[in-house]
Write a structure and sequence with these properties.
single chain; about 260 residues; alpha/beta; Rossmann fold; SIR2/SIRT2 'Small Domain'; 2 domains; 8 strands; about 15% strand; elongated; binds ligand BV8; binds zinc ion
């Protein structure tokens, strides 16, 4: 039985510039539902187009705001898991580490990662739909988690516009600088760890392929097998909370 960790651990031990690219799967073991999980997909009860678009918010602000507040409450009550912690530890093990996430939770930061690039924004950065003024998080009181609870969004104290979640909705462009920086790091890295993503949402999904095309190796960490027939692409099949600590142990055991 080939030891699937052997090459990924060697690549990690010798890497200079590492990019960690995460999706909803890295937060699954913290109890945050993924988008397409068979059991608890966030979309189970709603279609993306029904909730994660500006039109959906304008059509039914209370449904959309209530759904995001439910998700924000889940995240407030959740804890970073072993994968988030291993990724934070990795920063001290390699010369250069960049964490790029599609997730809107702050579990990477709460595990100790710094400078996380949030391609799709954050649940903790609400802003006025009309004038864009940011809305202090403290003013938002997450309700007890209830996916279907309708909640009227707060109003902006500058222009009384509706406050919206600080996330990137479908049909909205990604934050320019963040996206450019993520692409830059992916095209310059030796190794990209792609953790817990189905790779369906564009343009974020291009990032692992960009790294491969630029000559990096890519390791997919996912309980489901990701198609890695490409040269220099590897699979570590399993839950991130188990695989990541094991990968670091194999790569750095014996080093101080
Ligand atoms: C844009 C924030 C243009 C909000 C999100 C073709 C057809 C139709 C539409 C399009 C198209 N190409 C592009 C588009 C548009 C669209 C798109 O990609 N649609 C998809 C559905 C096809 N893209 C956009 O609209 C983007 N903007 O293109 O703008 C433009 C240009 C100029 C000017 C104006 C506009 C914006 C996309 C951003 C959408 N916002 N999130 C919110 O969170 O509510 S997307 C959201 O879904 C996430 O952020 C993430 O990106 C995505 C979910 O994907 P994953 O993270 O991968 O999660 P998923 O559940 O799918 O998978 C989980 C994985 O984890 C699985 O593989 C599972 O096996 C694994 N897993 C489970 N447990 C574990 C695990 N892994 C490890 N350990 C475990 N324990
Ligand atoms: Zn305003």
């Amino acid at each position: 039985m080939t030891d699937t960790y052997h090459i990924p651990a060697q690549l990690l031990a010798n890497a200079n510039r590492v990019v960690v690219f995460t999706g909803a799967g890295v937060s699954a073991e913290s109890g945050i539902p993924t988008f397409r999980g068979r059991l608890s997909g966030l979309w189970e009860r709603f279609e993306p187009s029904q909730l994660a678009t500006p039109d959906a918010f304008m059509a039914d602000p209370e449904l959309v705001w209530g759904w995001y507040e439910w998700r924000r409450t889940l995240v407030c009550n959740a804890k970073p898991n072993a994968a988030h912690i291993a990724i934070a530890e990795l920063a001290a093990r390699v010369p250069r580490l960049t964490v790029v996430t599609q997730n809107v939770d702050d579990l990477h930061e709460r595990a100790g990662s710094a400078g996380v690039l949030h391609l799709h924004g954050s649940l903790n950065a609400p802003r006025c739909f009309d004038c864009g003024a940011s809305f202090p998080d403290a003013a938002m009181k997450p309700q007890e988690p209830d996916a279907g609870r309708r909640l009227a969004p707060p109003r902006c104290q500058h222009c009384s516009g509706m406050i919206r979640p600080g996330v990137v909705w479908f049909g909205e462009s990604l934050p320019e600088q963040v996206f450019a920086r993520a692409f830059e790091e992916a095209s310059q890295c030796d190794l990209l760890l792609s953790i817990g993503t189905s790779g369906l949402v564009q343009p974020a999904a291009q990032i692992p392929a960009l790294a491969l095309a630029a000559g990096a190796s890519v390791v997919h960490i996912n309980p489901e097998n990701v198609d890695s027939r490409m040269q220099n692409a590897y699979n570590l099949t399993g839950a991130a909370g188990e695989v990541m600590p094991e990968l670091l142990r194999r790569a750095f055991s014996g080093s101080p």
